[in-house]
Amino acid sequence: MKKVAFISHGHPELSKGGAEVASWNLYTLLKHKGFDCLYIARTDAKSHGGSTFSSRGNEVLLHTAMTEWFTLSSSHLKPLFVDLAELLREYSPDVVHIHHYAHMGIELFAAIRQALPDTKIVFTLHEFMAMCMHNGQMVKRETLKLCYKATANDCHQCFPSNSPGDFLLRKQYLLDQFSHVDEFISPSHFLAKRYVDWGLDVEKMHVIENVLPPRSAIEPRQISENGKRGKFAFFGQINPYKGLDILLHAITLLPPDIRAQIHLDVHGANLDKQPAEFRERVESLLAQTKDCVDIRGPYEAEQLPSRIAECDWVVIPSIWWENSPVVIQEAMQFGRPLIGSNIGGMKEKIENKAGLTFEARSAASLAAALVKATDPDVFEHWQEKLAINHNAENEHIALLESLFSDISATGS
Amino acid sequence: MKKVKSLVKKILGRPERSPLTVDTVSQTTGGYCVIGWYFTDGVKSVAIEDENGNAVDVKRSPIPRDDVKAATGRGGTGFQLLCNTDKELSQLKLVAHLSNGRQEKRSLALQGQDPGLESETGNVASNIVTQTGVKGSCEYAIVSPNFIFVSGWLTDGQNATDWSLVDGRGFVVADVEDITRYHRRDVVETYGESDMFKHTGFALLMKVDTRVGKNSNLTLCATLNENSIKLPIEHVYAASDDPMTNAMRLLNNWQSHVPKQLSKASVFGPMLREIYPGDKTASVTRIDFGQAPECPRASMIIPLYGRYDFLRYQLSYFGRRPQYQDIEILYVIDDPKIAGNALKLAREMEYVSQQPFSLLQLSHNVGFGKANNIGAEHATADTLLLVNSDILPKSDDWLDKMLESVSREDTGIVGARLLFEDDTLQHDGMAPMTITEYPGLLFNDHPRKGWMKSLSPFPAEEAECELLTAACWAVKKTDFNAVGGFDSAYVLGDFEDSDLCLKLLEQGKKNVIRRDAELYHLERQSQNLVSPGRWKHNITILNAVLFNERWKDTLQSMHEERVK
Questions:
Q1: Cβ contact (<8 Å) for A179 and B320?
Q2: Backbone angles phi, psi at B139, to 5 degrees
Q3: ipTM value of the model?
Q4: What number of C-beta contacts closer than 8 Å exist between A and B?
Q5: Of the CATH numbers 3.10.20.70, 3.90.550.10, 3.30.365.10, 3.30.470.20, which one belongs to the domain with range B391-564?
Q6: Residue B421 touches chain A, beta carbons under 8 Å
Q7: Is A173 in Cβ contact with B312 (below 8 Å)?
Q8: Who has the most CB within 10 Å: A243, B6, B270, B537?
Q9: Which residues are CB-contacts of A333 (< 8 A; sequence separation ≥ 6)?
Q10: How far is A155 from chain B (nearest CA, A)?
C-alpha cells in the first residue's frame, strides 16, 4: 500500500487556520480512500520529558519552533534533521505532503530530502509568506495599498530596517529551500501565477482546490411572497485585511427603504486585539448600524451549518488578495451565493461562478451589490448556479497516483 | 564579598531600568530607521533631533509589543522612526520625553558598531595659565614604541616653538617630528574671538627617544617668546590598547577636507600604523565542517566582519549546486564579537547545506587585507577565489569562466561584473578619479555604478582591465604570494586591492575582467566614503595618501587616459 505522510504547522483541533483544515480534510479523504497515511502536526506545547514527539489520537505531534522570521528559519535543527528524519525513514512514505513550514522552519524541506532522497515532496502553498514579509499579505505595510510584485526595493520601503540586498538574499535562500520540493499545489490560479512569476518552476505547479468534508447543501431560507433576500453574513477574523469596516460602511450608504429590509450577522472575533485606529473605526460604524447588524462572535465547525442556514448571502469584502478562502468553498457547498471583492482569489472563485463581485475596498460599490443582491431573482440565479467542484478530490488523487508511478518507474 | 554585594543590592534595590530601549538602528537609502520600545507609563513620546537640538522630521509607526508586558509586567509601546536626512548618525540623538517632564537623550549607532566616541574636545578647561597670560591644555597623548601623538590647544598665536615631551623626572623622552595647528571652535566658544584664539588646536607627532608606558606622568614643553611653557598631559593611552578607540582619538579632529590640513597627513599616518601595526599577528582557530574536498579546484576565501548572516545565504547557494563540491571554502572570522554567533550559524548550516566549509576564527580584528592573507595561508588549492561575504552569484557559469581565465600564465587577477540587487552595475572595472575636496589625490572609482547593464559600453565578454575590486577575484596563489599578498600598511581595508592590481601589472601580468561572469554584490553602505564618524573616513584618506605616494605616476597616466 502506498504511504503518504502529511506535515502541517498545526493540528486543526488546536489551531483552526485554513492550511491546517485543508491538510486535515485531504488526510481524512485519503485515509477513507484506503491510503496508508500519517499526520504530523507541529505544536507549541511542551512535550513529555523534552521529547520531540508526542501524540494526539492517531496523529503525531512534533514539538519545535521557528526562530528567525526574516528567513523563515529555525535554529532548532535537530528536531528536523535528526528526529523527524529518523521517524520518516522508519515510516518510509512514498510521498510527503507538506502544508506549511511556518513555526517549523523553511529548512524542513532540506531535512526531508536528506532523510528520504527518493521520496516525492509535495508542498501546498496557502499564502504569500515566502514572497512578502508583511505576513504574506501582499499589501503595503503602512498604507495597506495592494502590492502587485515583491521587488527588493519595494520590500525595503515596507521594512526599512532591512536593505534591498537583504531581500534579494532572503528570496534566494527561500528558493534554495524550495528547490527540494518536487510538486507544488496551489488552490488558486491567482496564487500559482504569483509564485511562478516570483521564481517557482511552472512545470512543478499544480492548481488544485482544497477538499472539503462531504456535506450537503442547505435549502434556501424561507421568505414571504414579497420578501427580500437581505440576510447577509460575514465569516472570519475581524482585522483590517478582512474588510468588515468596508461592509459596515456600505450599510450606512444604503437607502433607508433597503436598509429596513436587510440584516448582517458578523461571525467572527478578535476586534479587541486590533490596532486602536481600526478598532475605533469599526466600533463607530457598529454604533451607526446597530439597527441591522449583530455581532455573533466566534463559532466551532459544528455550528457552521446552522449559522450559514440563517443567511441568504455570504459576504467576503477582504482588502487583501486572499488565496482560496475556505469560507467561499463552504458557502458554495452549503448552497449560499457570495458577494466578494473583485481581486485575487475572491474574483477567481466568485466572478461568473458563485455570485456578485464589487470594486475591492469601495463601500459604494459594495452597497450597490447589496442592493442588487436583495432581489430574489438575483439570489435565485446564483443559488441555482452554485456547484461545488468535486473534481478537487480526484485531482489530488490523480497527482498522487502519478507520483507513485514515477517512483515505480525509477525503480525506487 | 559576593554576599556583601548582594546585600548592598538588596538595600539599594536594583538600579531602575531606563524606560527607553533601542532595538536596532539601520541605514536606509534616505536616512536611518530606529526601532525600539518604551514603557508606556514612563515615556510620552520619542523624537529625533540633530546636533543643534532641532527636531528632525520622522515618520512614526507604532509596533505592538505585547512581549514587553509579558516579560516585565509593564505595558510597552513599540516604535519605528524613519527619518530622511543627509546628516551623519553621530549628529543625531534619540530624545524621549518622559512622563515626569524630563528628557532622556540617546546617541545612536548602527548595529554591530559602538556609538562614536564623543569628541575628546568639547569641554574646554584651561589647566594652565602661564605667567604671560597664555591659556592652554594638553588633553591626551597616545604612546607607542616609535611615536607619541599629542593633542591639545594653546593660545600662543601659533608662535610656540621647541616642542618636547618630558617625563616625571624632567628627562626629555620625545622630540617633535611634525605638527599641525587647527581651529578649535570649542575654545573660541569658551573664551571668545580674538587673534590669540585662532588656530589654538595642535596635533603633534613626536619621535620617541626613551620609551614610556601608558599612565606615565608626561609634560609637554614649548618655548614662547623666550618663556618656557609646560602643559601636563591629562591622559596617556597606549597605542596597543583598543585600536578603534585610539583611531577615533587620533583622527576624529583631523579636518582632512581642508587642503592645508590634508597636506599634514604626515602627522597622523605614522601613528595610525602604530595603532594597527602590519606585523601584528592574530592567532587562528580552524574549525572544519563536512568532508573537505581532497584536491580542490580552487580555494574560496570569504572574510566575515560585522554581519555573519551572509554565511547562511552563501552556503545555502553553494550547497544547492554541484559545481561547488570541489571548492574549498574558508570563512575568515575577522571580528571576535561575532565569532560565537557565526559558529552557531555554521553548525546550523552544516545540517541544512551539503557544502563542506571551514571557519578560521581570528583572535582579533585585523582588517580585510590581512584576513585574506591569513585565508590564503590556509588555502590548499593553487587558485584563490577572494569573495566578499555580501556576494551572491547570479549566473552559475561565473566560476568556470573565471577559473578558465586565471589559468592562463600571463593573467594576473581576474575580476567579475558585479551587480546590485536591482541588476544595475556595482562594479564593471575600477578607474582612478579625483574628488574636489581632496586635491592631488586619486581615488578608486566605479565608473557607471548604478547603470543598467544594457547601457554599459562594454560587451559581456573578457577584457583587459587594470584595476579590479577584490570583492570578487580569481588569482593564482603564486602570484598573490609573489607580491606578499595584501599590503597591511593600508589600514582596515581600502586601496589594498588596487595596490595589488598595480603590483601584478608591474610584474608583467595582465589583469582581466569577465563581464560575462555576473554576481550580486550587495555593497554595504558603511563601506562608502561617507560613513558615520570622521575617524573612519580619515583612515580612508590616510590610505589614499599612501596609495598615491606609491603609485603617483601610474595613477596619473591612467587618469589622463580616462579623461582624454
A1: yes
A2: -80, -40
A3: 0.86
A4: 80
A5: 3.90.550.10
A6: yes
A7: yes
A8: A243
A9: A212, A215, A217, A388
A10: 12
